[in-house]
Amino acid sequence: NQAEKAVHQKKEQSKTKCRKARRHHINLVAEFNRRQRKNIWLETHIWHAKRFHMIKKWGYCVADRPTEKSYRACYRAMTKHCLLQDLSYYCCLELKGKENELLKQLARVCSPDTELTFGTEFCLSGRFQGSLDLYQADRYPENLLGPVTFIWKPRDVSENRQLWIWMHPALKQDILSELKAIFQCSEPEEICIPEPCTTLIQGEKQTDTAVSLGKKRKKEDKEGEKDVPVKKIIGDGTRDPLQPYSWASPATGVVISDQTMEILRYRLIGPLSHSVLAETLKAAALQTV
After folding, report:
1. Fewer Cβ atoms within 10 Å of its own Cβ: the N or the C terminal residue of the chain?
2. Distance linking the first and last C-alpha atoms of the chain
């Protein structure tokens, strides 16, 4: 019996891949896709997972508290240097349409008696971000939906405007339903989504090119066919990947798009935040025609 157990253990160990194979790009992508089936990872997940205790909340896997005593370091960074926070788990809704139509309907879900509105002049120009509380349409001061932040895209020649609204994941479904109701957006907009087979073929072509250069080996499945895993579009923590993510209104001409996990968001805190941005982002030269 002991000899048979030893034989089985050797067979099981032989199936385990070495570290070099596990760290191969193709294997990493396949492993990441498998581990993100239930909880979505932020793009900074790997960095946080090595230094923080991770928790599963609101459909995401986010950092909760550091594994080391770094509270003093964070406080020092906020007061003297710069501290960066990843807020990409916040949900973003994009509204496109005529400015007058957007302001007319959005005025029903907020009130100028409390604070700023979507039509405040310095926010409407697109230079500053605003924050306010949303209510159900024409129900102020009752039926509070929750706080949101927003920013307009600066004006251009066209009369159409773009508005981005950020909210907590726990508030997204209620706010999205209310916005679709006031703008009469009930039918999903037709969007061409590439089929998985097309993406797989492109991945196979890239693998063939790499193999011809002698840099990458082919990975084959049991039937001997090329099996190249690709990154999957798995939606976000608040939406199923098979659900629509854009809605259009034939009556008002407004289009609502769910840009969650498409537009990333980071918060910089500290007196050197502007200096960090200036060194990181290089301004492009303006070209006048």
Report:
1. C
2. 84
Contact between 60 and 39 under an 8 Å Cβ cutoff? The reply is yes
- Residue 159 tokens read as 């009369």
Cα separation, 105 vs 157, whole angstroms: 23
Query: Is the distance from CB of 65 to CB of 268 less than 8 angstroms?
Result: no
Whether residue 141 is preceded by a cis peptide bond, meaning omega within 30 degrees of 0, is yes
Name, in order, each residue with C-beta under 8 angstroms of 236's C-beta and a sequence gap of 6 or more: 40, 59, 91, 258, 260, 261
Q: Which domains does the chain show, CATH number per domain? A: 28-68 (no CATH), 91-187+244-263 (3.30.70)
166-225 pLDDT per residue, tens: 999 888 889 998 998 888 887 664 544 444 433 334 444 444 444 444 444 444 444 444
CA distance 240 to 161: 28
Yes or no: say if 238 and 91 are a contact pair by the CB < 8 Å rule: yes
- Tell me if 61 sits within 8 A of 81, measured CB to CB: no
Q: What are the backbone dihedrals phi and psi of residue 20, each rounded to the nearest 5 degrees, phi first?
A: -65, -40
Higher pLDDT, 49 or 268: 268
